[in-house]
Specification:
The structure holds two protein chains of two kinds. Helix content of chain A is about 20%, strand content about 30%. Chain A is α+β, with helices and mostly antiparallel strands. Chain A has five domains: about 110 residues, Rieske [2Fe-2S] iron-sulphur domain (Rieske Iron-sulfur Protein, 3-layer Sandwich); about 180 residues, FAD/NAD(P)-binding domain (3-Layer(bba) Sandwich), CATH 3.50.50; about 210 residues, FAD/NAD(P)-binding domain, CATH 3.50.50; about 120 residues, Rieske [2Fe-2S] iron-sulphur domain (Rieske Iron-sulfur Protein, 3-layer Sandwich), CATH 2.102.10.10; about 230 residues, Naphthalene 1,2-dioxygenase Alpha Subunit, Chain A, domain 1 (Alpha-Beta Complex), CATH 3.90.380. Chain B has four helices and seven strands. The chains are: A alpha+beta, B alpha+beta. Strand 45 of chain A pairs parallel with strand 7 of chain B. Bound molecules: flavin-adenine dinucleotide, FE2/S2 (inorganic) cluster and fe (ii) ion (FE2).
C-alpha cells in the first residue's frame, strides 16, 4: 500500500500529538517542527488513546497510567509498560503528512525491554544462582533489572502458583468483564524466561532457608544453594475469619483463579455484597455495577479507607460509588455468613443482608513466614533498605511482602502497589547484580480504575491531612491535594492525568500550596458534602444533573436528618417522577380481577401519569398512557368499562386495546388536499406503551425496559409477605375509596415504616386492646431499603403487664366495644402475622389488616399533595359472612377508618408544619443501633432511613 | 303518593297525610343534621334502630354494586362504637361542619315503614382557611320505622358523588 496521506501538516500542533485513523487503525501523529512521527494510537498497556497523552522531550506519556514511550522508536520507557509501541514511517510532502502502515515496526511483543540485556560478566561477586521465592510482579522486575545490570549467574524462579509472573491489577478490573485475555496480564512471557536464562519452578514453594549455608529448600524437596535469595512472596487475601467465610459464593481475590471464579459468579448473581470499602472492594463493586447487579458495600469503619486517606477523601470515593448505584453502608461489621434459601445471609452488626455472592476485599496479609524463618527482621513486613537488602546477608526482599524503606506518613509501612513492586523488585535486582548506584526517589504512585474513572494518586497522604479540592467533589475532573502544614503530601486526581503530572513539582515544592491561585477550597475534616451553591452562581454550562447535585445536598449528619425540601420542592418532585415513577420501578396499576374479560379496562396512573390498563382480545394485559398521540388529549374518561377500541373524542383518532394507532380520519386528506404527510406511519404513533408484569393477580407497569422480574424486584423477604396476602386465591373486587392527601407522597411510605407511631397516634388500637407495645412485631426493610413490611401478631389482651400499660397513655381499662367482633381475626393466611402493611416502592401499599384487605395506590400530583386510590378486595369463595366481616373490619382503614383518618390527618399536619418554615429539617434518629434497615424494635426509624438511602441513590443526591 | 301523574287525583286527606309525613321526615333530618353539626355523636347514634344499617358508599361503588363503604355499620352497636371511638380516641384537626339536607322524597311502604331519599351537602370549615369547602355531596337512601320516640332509621345509605375525598372523613354524614 505504501504511503498514504493522513493529514495536513498545518492541522498538527507543533510539539503535540494528534489522533487519526487509517484503515480503521488508530494512529498517533507527533509533530516536531516540520518533522512528523507516527505510532500506533493505543497504549500497549491498557485501552488508552495516546492522542490524549502528554508529549515531552521526545516522549509520549499515556493519559491512563502514565506509561511513557519514546516517540521515535516506540520504546516503552517505564512502568507499567512492558511492550513497545508500533511505529510507522511518516513523511511530509507539500504540506501534507503521509504514513506507511506496512512499515510497522516489529510486533511490539517481540521487541521490548529485552534489548537492553547484554549478558555481561557480572554475577554480583558470586557465580552461585539467584533464587527467587515467589513468581510475582516484583520477581519479574528483579529478573529484568538484574540481567540488565549484567547479572550472569543462573536464576531460579520458584513460584507457588502454576503461572509465570502476572500482574494483578486487571484481576479486579478487565478480568471481571467479558473479554479478558490471560496472556495480556503476563509480566514475564515464556520467550523472556528463555532469553533471560531463568529456570522456572511452577507450583513449588520455597519452604526453608539456611541463611548460614545459603541453601534454599523447595516443597518438591529440591535443595538449591544460592548466592542471593530474593523473597518476593507477596501476600494472601485477608479472610474475614467469621463463620461461613468459606461457603461457596463467598470470594476473596488475589489470584487469576480467584478472579475467574468471581467473574463466573457475577454472571449468575443478581445481588452482590462487597465486604470492605478499600480500592479492591470498590473496583469489585464497580465491576458488579457494570453488569447491572445490585450492590451493597459494607464497610466496618465510619468512612471508606479511613486508615489510608483523610475522611473527606474517603467520602469522595464513597459518593462516587453511591452515584453509580452502589449502596454503601458504613459502621457495619459482618459477623457470620450462612447459606439460606439459595442465597447467602450476612449477619451484620446492624441486621441481616441477603446476597447471591459475597466479595471480600478486606486487605492483604503479607507472606513473611519464610523471611522470619530465615532470620530476617520482620515488622508487619520484611524490613529492607533502599536496595532491598534484609537484615540477613545474602537475602533481599521486595514487593507486597516488604516494608517501604522510607517511613510513610511517619510510620514504616508497606506500599501494596504495582509501582512499588516494580521499583522494589528492580532495586533488589540491581543490587543483587552489584549495581549499588543510588537512584533518585520517585514519589509513590498508585492508580485505580472504577466507575468509569481513572483515578491516580501520587505521594503519600496522611489520614490527618487537610484536603484541598478543585473541581466537583466525587466527579471526573476532581483533584484533591492532601496538605500537611500547607504543603502538598499527595495528589489524587479523578480522571485528570495532567493534574498528576503537574503534581510532581508540587510535591517537592517548598512553598505552601496556594489555595486561591488554584481556585481550590479546603474540605472540612468531617465534611461529607460540598456546600450548596446558589443556583444563580451556577456554572451555566454545567449539566442539569450537576446543577441539581450542587443545589440539593443532603445534610452532613447523614440519614438521621431529612431536609424539608425533600417533601416540598417542585424540582425534586419532577425528578422523582422522572427517576422513580418513570424509572427503574414496577408500579402497581390494577388487580387482574378488575379487567377480567377481553375489552375490560380501567383508568389508572403510574406516578402522576394517567394510563389505561386494558385486556386485549388475546387475553394479554396492556398499559399505555391515557394521552392521545395527536394532541395529548386524555381520551379515556370512564373509570372503568369494556371497549372494543379507544377513540379520542377530539379528532377521532382510534387505538386498539394494546394502544396501537389504527385510524386517523382524513389521513389522505380530501380531494388530494391536506391530510397527513405521505411518510406518516401509524405504527410509529401509537400510545406510549409500558412494560407489564403480573404477580398473583396483581398488575404492574414500568417505563423502564429490561426490568428484573417482580419477585426479584421485591426480594425474597418482602415477596414472602406479598405472597402471604396474595396466597393463590383469586382476589375479588369489593370496591374503592379515593382521597387526596395534602402531604408529600413519601410521608405515606414513612408512616408505614414508622412502627413508633402505632400505639402513640392510634389510641383506638390501645384503648380496645388491638395492639399493645408488647405484641410480637417486626419492621422489615428489604436490602435495598425501598420496600418494607410492618407486621404484628394479635395477642391476647387479657394479661398485659402493668408496666407496659403505664407506658401507653391511652390504655383505658373498662372501655369496651359493643360490637367487638368486627375486630376478630379469622386466621386465613399462612403467616405468623395477623397484620402486615407492605410498602412496595414506589406506589403500592398492600394492607392486610387482619381480614380487611386492600391495595393503596399512591398517585402523586405534586410535592405537596397526592391521591390515594384504595382497591378493597376479598377472595373468590368467600361466603357472605366472610365478605361482611371484611367490610365491617374495613371500618379500621380508609379515609374514614378509625386508624386511617388519623394517619391522614397526621400527614397533613406534617406537611403544614413544613410550609411555613424555610430550611427546616426532620429528625429520624430513633434506634441508632441500626443505621438503616430492618429493626428488631418498634421504637425505630431505621426503615425510614433505609428508604432515604435508596431514595438518595435513585435521585442522585449525594 | 305525591306523584302528580297519578290517574286518580289524591284526596285532600291523603295529601295532608303525605305532607305531615314529609314534615316529620324533614324534622328528623334537621335533627340529624344538627346532631352532626354540633358533633353530638352519641345522640346521632340513637337515631338508628337496634338493627339499623349505616353505610357511606361512593356512587362509583354503589352503581357497580360493590359493597365497600367508608363507614360500614350493621347495627346500632357498631354505630355507637363509631360515635364513642370518634369522641374518645380519634385524633383529627378541629373543624366545623354544616349538613344541608334537601330535595326530600318520601314514600310509605306497605309494612308501614317509610322509604325516603334526600340530597345532602356537607360543608367543612377548618380553622386556618377562609373558605368552607364542600366536603361531600350525595344522596341518602333511607328506610325509617316508627318507634316509641318517633322515627328511627332502620337504614341509611349515604351515596356520595364527590368520589375524591378531601383527606379524611372524620364526622359521619
Ligand atoms: C485484585 C488486585 C488489584 C490490584 N490493583 C492494583 C491497582 O489498580 N494499582 C496498583 O498499583 N496496584 C494494584 N494491586 C497491587 C499489586 O498488584 C501488588 O502490589 C503486586 O502484585 C505485588 O507484587 P508482588 O510481586 O510483591 O506480589 P505477588 O504478585 O503477590 O507475587 C507473590 C507470589 O509469591 C508466591 N509465593 C508466596 N509464598 C511463596 C513461597 N514461599 N514460595 C514460592 N512462592 C511463594 C505467591 O503465590 C505469589 O504468586 C492490585 C492487587 C490485587 C490483588
Ligand atoms: S493504558 Fe497506558 S499506561 Fe496503562
Ligand atoms: Fe398509622
Amino acid at each position: 500500500m505504501g504511503f498514504r496521506k493522513v493529514a495536513e501538516l498545518d492541522a498538527l500542533r507543533d510539539g503535540g500529538v494528534t489522533g487519526v485513523e487509517v484503515d480503521g487503525v488508530p494512529i498517533a501523529l507527533f509533530r516536531m517542527g516540520n518533522e512528523v512521527h507516527a505510532t500506533h494510537g493505543i497504549c500497549t498497556h491498557a485501552l488508552a488513546f495516546l492522542k490524549d497523552g502528554y508529549v515531552e522531550d521526545g516522549t509520549i506519556e499515556c493519559p491512563l497510567h502514565q506509561g511513557v514511550f519514546d516517540i521515535r522508536t516506540g520504546r516503552a520507557l517505564c512502568a507499567p509498560l512492558t511492550q513497545d509501541l508500533a511505529t510507522y514511517a511518516a513523511k511530509v510532502e507539500g504540506g501534507a503528512v503521509f504514513v506507511d502502515l506496512d512499515s510497522a515496526s516489529e510486533s511490539p511483543s517481540d521487541a521490548g525491554p529485552l534489548e537492553e540485556v547484554q549478558v555481561a560478566e557480572n554475577t554480583g561477586g558470586s557465580s552461585l544462582p539467584l533464587v527467587i521465592a515467589g513468581a510475582g510482579q516484583a520477581a519479574a522486575a528483579a529478573i529484568r533489572a538484574a540481567r540488565a545490570a549484567g547479572f550472569s549467574a543462573p536464576i531460579h524462579l520458584v513460584g507457588a502458583e502454576p503461572h509465570l509472573p502476572y500482574e494483578r491489577p486487571p484481576l479486579s478490573k478487565e478480568a471481571l468483564g467479558d473479554a479478558f485475555d490471560r496472556a495480556s496480564a503476563c509480566r514475564l512471557p515464556p520467550a523472556d524466561v528463555a532469553a533471560l536464562g531463568v529456570t522456572f519452578h511452577p507450583g513449588v514453594r520455597v519452604t526453608a532457608v539456611d541463611a548460614e549455608a545459603r541453601v534454599a529448600t523447595l516443597s518438591d524437596n529440591a535443595q538449591i544453594p544460592y548466592g542471593a535469595l530474593l523473597i518476593a512472596t507477596g501476600g494472601t487475601a485477608r479472610r474475614l475469619g467469621i463463620p461461613g467465610d468459606d461457603l461457596p459464593g463467598v470470594h476473596h481475590l488475589r489470584t487469576l483463579e480467584d478472579a475467574e471464579a468471581i467473574a463466573a459468579s457475577l454472571a449468575s448473581a443478581r445481588t452482590v455484597a462487597v465486604v470492605g470499602g478499600g480500592f479492591i472492594g470498590l473496583e469489585l463493586a464497580s465491576a458488579a455495577r457494570a453488569r447491572g447487579l445490585k450492590v451493597v458495600l459494607l464497610e466496618r469503619e465510619g468512612e471508606l479507607m479511613s486508615r489510608l486517606l483523610p475522611p473527606a477523601l474517603g467520602a469522595a470515593f464513597r459518593r462516587l460509588a453511591e452515584a453509580h448505584g452502589v449502596e454503601v453502608r458504613r459502621d457495619v461489621a459482618v459477623e457470620a455468613i450462612t447459606a439460606r434459601d439459595g442465597a447467602l445471609a450476612l449477619a451484620t452488626t446492624t441486621g441481616e443482608i441477603f446476597a447471591d455472592t459475597v466479595l471480600v476485599g478486606v486487605g492483604l496479609v503479607p507472606e513473611t513466614a519464610l523471611a522470619a524463618l530465615a532470620g530476617c527482621e520482620v515488622a508487619g513486613g520484611i524490613v529492607v533498605d533502599a536496595f532491598g537488602r534484609t537484615s540477613v546477608d545474602g537475602i533481599w526482599a521486595a514487593g507486597d511482602c516488604a516494608l517501604h524503606h522510607v517511613p510513610l506518613d511517619g510510620r514504616r509501612g508497606r506500599l501494596e502497589s504495582w509501582r512499588n513492586a516494580e521499583e522494589q523488585g528492580a532495586a533488589a535486582g540491581r543490587s543483587i547484580a552489584g549495581d549499588t548506584a543510588a537512584r533518585t526517589e520517585k514519589a509513590p504512585w498508585f492508580w485505580t480504575d472504577q466507575f468509569g474513572l481513572n483515578i491516580q494518586m501520587l505521594g503519600v497522604p496522611g489520614t490527618g491531612n487537610e484536603v484541598a479540592l478543585t473541581g466537583t467533589d466525587g466527579a471526573a475532573g476532581a483533584v484533591y491535594r492532601t496538605l500537611a502544614d500547607g504543603r502538598v503530601t499527595a495528589v489524587i486526581a479523578f480522571s485528570d492525568a495532567a493534574a498528576i503530572r503537574a503534581a510532581r513539582a508540587e510535591l517537592v515544592s517548598d512553598t505552601p500550596f496556594d489555595l486561591a491561585a488554584h481556585g481550590a477550597r479546603l474540605l472540612a475534616p468531617q465534611e461529607t458534602n460540598p456546600t450548596p451553591i446558589d443556583p444563580e452562581e451556577d456554572d451555566m454550562s454545567a449539566s442539569p444533573d450537576v446543577q441539581f447535585a450542587k443545589k440539593y445536598v443532603w445534610p452532613q449528619e447523614g440519614l438521621s436528618i431529612i431536609p424539608d425540601w425533600v417533601y416540598t420542592d417542585e424540582t425534586v418532585y419532577q425528578r422523582e417522577v422522572e427517576r422513580i415513577f418513570h424509572g427503574r420501578t414496577w408500579n402497581f396499576v390494577a388487580l387482574e380481577c378488575e379487567i377480567e374479560n377481553p375489552g375490560d379496562f380501567i383508568r389508572s396512573n403510574v406516578g402522576p401519569t394517567p394510563v389505561v390498563v386494558a385486556r386485549a382480545e388475546d387475553g394479554t394485559i396492556h398499559v399505555f398512557e391515557n394521552r392521545c398521540a395527536h394532541r395529548a388529549a386524555e381520551f379515556c374518561r370512564d373509570l372503568s368499562g369494556n371497549a372494543k377500541e379507544f377513540v379520542c373524542p377530539y379528532h377521532q383518532w382510534s387505538y386498539d386495546l394494546k394502544g396501537n394507532l389504527v385510524g386517523v380520519p382524513f389521513r389522505r386528506g380530501v380531494d388530494g388536499k391536506g391530510g397527513m404527510p405521505k411518510d406518516f406511519k401509524p405504527a410509529d404513533h401509537g400510545l406510549k406503551q409500558l412494560n407489564v408484569t403480573t404477580h398473583r393477580g396483581v398488575v404492574f407497569a414500568s417505563y423502564a425496559d429490561g426490568m428484573e422480574s417482580f419477585p426479584e424486584y421485591l426480594g425474597p423477604e418482602v415477596l414472602r409477605e406479598f405472597e402471604a396476602t396474595f396466597d393463590g386465591r383469586k382476589p375479588k373486587l369489593l370496591g374503592h375509596y379515593r382521597h387526596s392527601l395534602p402531604g408529600n407522597w413519601k410521608l405515606y411510605h414513612e408512616n408505614l415504616k414508622d412502627p413508633y407511631h402505632a400505639t402513640l397516634l392510634h389510641t383506638f388500637l390501645v384503648t380496645f386492646g388491638l395492639l399493645v407495645a408488647g405484641n410480637k412485631s417486626l419492621m422489615l426493610a428489604d436490602p435495598s431499603g425501598r420496600h418494607g413490611v410492618m407486621a404484628s401478631a394479635k395477642s391476647d389482651t387479657t394479661h398485659i403487664d402493668a408496666d407496659k400499660k403505664k407506658e401507653m397513655r391511652a390504655y383505658k381499662e373498662g372501655m369496651t366495644l359493643e360490637e367487638p367482633r368486627f375486630m376478630d381475626f379469622i386466621d386465613e393466611f399462612d403467616s405468623p402475622w395477623s397484620v402486615t402493611m407492605a410498602t412496595i416502592w414506589p406506589n403500592l401499599i398492600v394492607q392486610r389488616e387482619m381480614n380487611t384487605l386492600g391495595i393503596r395506590h399512591i398517585v402523586p400530583t405534586g410535592p405537596n399533595e397526592f391521591i390515594m386510590k384504595w382497591t378493597m378486595f376479598g377472595f373468590e369463595g368467600d361466603d357472605e359472612e366472610m365478605t361482611r366481616h371484611r367490610l365491617r373490619q374495613g371500618n379500621l382503614m380508609g379515609p374514614a377508618g378509625f386508624l386511617g383518618l388519623e394517619d391522614n390527618e397526621a400527614i397533613k399536619f406534617v406537611q403544614d408544619g413544613m410550609l411555613g418554615v424555610p430550611g427546616g429539617e426532620h429528625l429520624v434518629k430513633l434506634d441508632p443501633g441500626t443505621e438503616a434497615g430492618t429493626a428488631d424494635t418498634l421504637i425505630s426509624e431505621a426503615a425510614i432511613r433505609a428508604m432515604y438511602r435508596h431514595w438518595r441513590d435513585a435521585m442522585g443526591i449525594a | 303518593m305525591l306523584n302528580p301523574s297519578s290517574a286518580n287525583a289524591p284526596s285532600r286527606d291523603d295529601l295532608i297525610d303525605a305532607l305531615l309525613l314529609k314534615a316529620e321526615v324533614e324534622a328528623f333530618n334537621e335533627a340529624y343534621a344538627s346532631a352532626l353539626d354540633e358533633q353530638r355523636l352519641a345522640d346521632w347514634a340513637e337515631m338508628f334502630t337496634v338493627n339499623g344499617f349505616y353505610n357511606i358508599i361512593s356512587r362509583e361503588n354503589y352503581d357497580r354494586k360493590l359493597p365497600v363503604g367508608l363507614i360500614y355499620c350493621e347495627n346500632r352497636g357498631m354505630i355507637r362504637d363509631r360515635a364513642f371511638a370518634l369522641e374518645k380516641t380519634a385524633m383529627f384537626a378541629p373543624r366545623y361542619l354544616r349538613h344541608m339536607v334537601g330535595n326530600l322524597k318520601v314514600a310509605e311502604a306497605v309494612d308501614g315503614s317509610i322509604d325516603a331519599t334526600a340530597n345532602y351537602v356537607v360543608f367543612q370549615v377548618l380553622f386556618d382557611r377562609p373558605d368552607a369547602t364542600i366536603h361531600q355531596v350525595g344522596r341518602y337512601i333511607d328506610r325509617f320505622v316508627r318507634e316509641e320516640g318517633g322515627l328511627k332509621l332502620a337504614s341509611r345509605i349515604c351515596i356520595y358523588d364527590s368520589l375524591l375525598i378531601d383527606n379524611a372523613l372524620c364526622i359521619p354524614v
